[in-house]
Design brief:
alpha/beta; 5-stranded parallel β-sheet; 26 helices; 25 strands
Length: 828
């Protein structure tokens, strides 16, 4: 069972009356106040933004040719293949984003190239291969006579494999949204939205959306070839976008809105008349109708992901999503449903085993949970690790040696490849070989595993610090995959725990649940549901609204076992109930997945829930997220100790200077942070200062305000920063001038720690650095061998700059909810 949770509620700034009235136009049955509060606190603050956010018909999507020269190169190469009738292979990936991206290219390019003769596709086996290109697969495609590979949702960092394909006479077009290579690979074209600035409307595209943009460009270039409209692909785009948990803003939101509409329209057709009978059958099996984003995130996405987790080979999923053969699609849908049932069973078994092992840990002295078992199936470890991390509030790493022989784990460790329980699946799948312990001894056994984090802990940095103990690792701040020698697990566990304890200081990790709005039972129902539906589709950066209901109680509770679709095996427990409070004489229905009715508290309590519409039962209901007895609730105390955090990032200086005061007080004092942090400790320092001042005041009306007001970093390339530092050092040596450390930091734009690494590198070039009071004096005595001696030191400086820039990019975009979560940890 999870330990006591920390509850927080998002600080709500009252939107102006004009904005409330503007929102009300879209909610004629209610006053629109709740929707207005949510939209305002999520950054929708003018009429144009509001209209484009709610009504996709007035949104102006970007042209595919925004990708510039690369999209033109891709289209030219496809036209060449079209004219010379070359054979093309689509190289996809095995998660939901990769499968739908492959399907979009299969259907889209299939309008121009004959399927199965001119056009084929290849999906790597999850249990035997890795994300990305591999030489064996390229060999097979070369034997089939392929002259062009078009990747989707993968390939950006496969430089060696791209070179290998080129040697075999195969060109490669990369469409992807993951990590960019250091230099442009030798491809025919690379289409990756990460080349755009973060504020570009295409920046957050997932793999399926990038594939769609390529097809869109081909449709526009050869307008008289395709027989089916481009819009027929949008339902697949919506499935991949929502299943991959990318940030649904800009074109991502627009495409998801359009795609959900197409999905719903197709599902309403008789089975024999559907464009995608396989998708329709999957929706029927999971009792969904396709009109809600949750039908994808809780229905279609997990089922598509389950196939590779259980069977390894998910190639048939492309046929399931694209075939019009109703009988064949029904067969494939049932195979998919069986894989999902098997995935649930395995996940449940592993979770029970992990829970048992957790009883042997002292969580009060454990910062990072690291558990291993030789029998755990690798395919579900990320899912279980995500659940345990959320329940315990601690980063969780689960390791297995199942299926790993004496040759080691092989392949690449997976990041967060699309599963719905991960906090983000837009993972950087490029992994880094570990340094000291990348053993070449094939007889040593490797453990493979998955790691999932909580909001306040940068998992990527945490794992990276232990690279010397690892064989391979890869991932991002919220999720990672790794492998290491079994004999290194105890050392790794001790080291990573010690590292996080030192980083946290006095902070105590605990599970956190955040609410967005406070409502009553009387508020629940159709009107509120339609208000909140304005925010759909929800996803990263725009989460499903969480509702706090205080001083309530439960009646008529009962639970039952959830069986699989054939009625054979028990999968989950589900408690159902009626909720009541003093606001209404009527009760409201709800459910709590994975819990027994006896877990509901007796008497008055507080709960956090999501409002939903059950299409199967045709009723509005709440989905319980967290609950606790009112007698034990520390919510009000926690709220009073959580700083009022104002997000003024990426605004003009004048706008920051005029930051609004709290709605509760005209005397609100505040601290403002304008320098973008490079680690959580920098931010924690400010939070603790703010909390200390808040604790010294009396009452909420004097609560300290903390404004985070840094701008998106405009980074110079690391090489240019190094040249600038060298140039400054030479100038200071030549002119015999002194410089302060602060002046140097401002000039080259790095942290003090990174500057020290740079000064060490300068010493290898013949510079002597001496202190004079509070200043530094540079003297240069160059020698012929200095450049060669400095290579390693310069490489360390460049690596430090790159890491610092990576962290600043993260803090420029980290959701406010994550920062609030850290504030709640420190408020204890």
């Amino acid at each position: 069972m999870p330990e006591q949770q920390q509850w927080t509620i998002t600080a709500t700034e009252q939107p102006p009356e004009w904005f409330i009235q503007a929102v009300k136009q879209y909610t004629p049955a209610s006053n629109g106040l709740y929707a207005a509060q949510l939209l305002w606190q999520r950054g929708i603050k003018d009429r144009q933004q509001l209209t484009a956010f709610i009504n996709y018909k007035v949104y102006q999507p970007a042209s595919p040719f925004e990708f510039g020269q690369e999209i033109h190169l891709a289209i030219a190469r496809l036209q060449q293949a079209y004219n010379t009738k070359e054979k093309i292979a689509i190289w996809g990936d095995f998660d939901a984003d990769g499968i739908t991206a492959t399907s979009v290219l299969w259907d889209g390019l299939g309008q121009f190239f004959a399927q199965n003769t001119q056009l084929v596709y290849y999906i790597p086996n999850r249990l035997k291969e890795s994300h990305g290109l591999n030489n064996q697969g390229i060999d097979n495609l070369a034997k089939e006579g392929c002259k062009l590979i078009v990747t989707c949702d993968t390939g950006s960092t496969n430089v060696e494999e791209i070179i290998y394909a080129k040697q075999l006479g195969i060109d490669v077009i990369v469409t992807d949204h993951h990590t960019l290579p250091a230099e442009r690979p030798p491809v025919a074209a690379i289409i990756n939205p990460r080349y755009f600035p973060k504020e570009h409307q295409l920046f957050n595209l997932s793999g399926v959306a990038v594939a769609y943009k390529l097809v869109e460009a081909l449709y526009q270039t050869l307008p008289n070839v395709a027989k089916y409209p481009l819009e027929d692909l949008l339902d697949l785009v919506a499935v991949g976008l929502i299943a991959d948990l990318v940030q649904l803003s800009g074109d991502c939101r627009y495409l998801a809105q359009m795609g959900i509409q197409r999905l719903q329209e197709d599902f309403k057709q008789p089975a024999a008349a559907r464009r995608r009978p396989g998708v329709g059958r999957l929706l029927e099996l999971c009792q969904k109708s396709g009109d809600r984003p949750t039908d994808i995130s809780f229905g279609l996405g997990p089922r598509i992901n389950a196939v590779s987790r259980i069977q390894g080979d998910a190639s048939f999923c492309v046929e399931l999503l694209t075939s019009r053969d109703v009988k064949r699609c029904n067969e494939l849908a049932e195979v998919t449903e069986l894989a999902n049932a098997r995935r649930k069973s395995l996940q449940k078994d592993v979770q029970a085993q992990v829970a048992q092992k957790l009883t042997q840990l002292d969580l009060s002295t454990t910062s990072v949970i690291v558990l291993e078992d030789a029998q755990w199936p690798a395919g579900v470890l990320g899912l279980v690790a995500g659940q345990i991390a959320q329940e315990t509030g601690r980063p969780t790493i689960l390791l297995s040696t199942e299926g790993v022989g004496e040759q080691g784990a092989g392949g690449r460790e997976q990041g967060a490849g699309g599963e719905i329980t991960s906090l983000s699946s837009n993972s950087e799948r490029a992994e880094r070989p570990a340094t000291a312990n990348s053993t070449q001894n094939s007889a040593l056994v490797l453990a493979r595993g998955s790691a999932r984090s909580v909001n306040s802990v940068d998992l990527y940095q945490l794992v990276k610090e232990q690279a010397h103990l690892l064989h391979r690792f890869g991932g991002h701040p919220f999720a990672a995959g790794l492998s290491l020698l079994v004999e290194n697990i105890p050392l790794f566990t001790a080291a990573i725990n010690q590292q996080l304890r030192q980083s946290l200081g006095s902070t105590t990790l605990m599970p956190t649940v955040q609410a967005d709005l406070t409502v009553t039972v009387a508020d629940l129902g159709k009107e509120l549901f339609l208000e909140l539906k304005l925010l759909e589709p929800c996803g990263m950066g725009n989460p499903v609204p969480k509702l706090l209901i205080q001083n309530c109680w439960f009646e008529n509770s009962w639970h039952r076992n959830q069986q699989d679709w054939q009625g054979k095996k028990v999968q989950y427990i589900k408690a159902e109930f009626d909720i009541r409070d003093d606001s209404s004489r009527s009760a409201f229905p709800g459910l709590w997945w994975g819990h027994y009715k006896d877990e509901l508290p007796i008497g008055r309590c507080d709960c956090i829930a999501e409002l939903d519409y059950n299409t199967f039962k045709k009723r509005y209901e709440i989905r319980l997220i967290a609950v606790r007895s009112s007698a034990n609730s520390a919510l009000n105390t926690q709220l009073s100790l959580t700083p009022y955090i104002l997000d003024l990032r990426n605004q003009e200086h004048s706008a920051r200077a005029k930051r609004p005061a709290s709605a509760n007080s005209t005397q609100h004092s505040g601290l403002i942070i304008e320098d973008c942090p490079t680690n959580w400790d920098d931010l924690r320092m400010w939070l603790r200062r703010c909390l200390a001042i808040s604790r010294s005041t009396s009452g909420l009306e004097n609560q300290q305000q903390l404004a985070i007001a840094w701008s998106k970093p405009n980074h110079q390339p690391p090489n240019q920063i190094w040249l600038t530092l060298v140039g400054i050092a030479k100038y200071l040596s030549r002119t015999n001038q002194l410089v302060t450390r602060g002046q140097l930091l401002e000039k080259i734009g790095v942290s003090d720690q990174t500057l020290l690494v740079g000064i060490k590198a300068l010493k290898y070039l013949g510079f002597t650095v001496q202190r004079q009071d509070r200043s530094l004096q540079f003297t240069w005595n160059p020698n012929d061998n200095a450049e060669n001696l400095a290579d390693e030191a310069v490489a360390r400086f460049l690596a430090a700059v790159r890491e610092e820039q990576f962290q600043q990019q993260y803090f420029a975009e980290v959701p406010l909810s994550t920062i609030v979560a850290i504030a709640s940890y420190d408020s204890k």
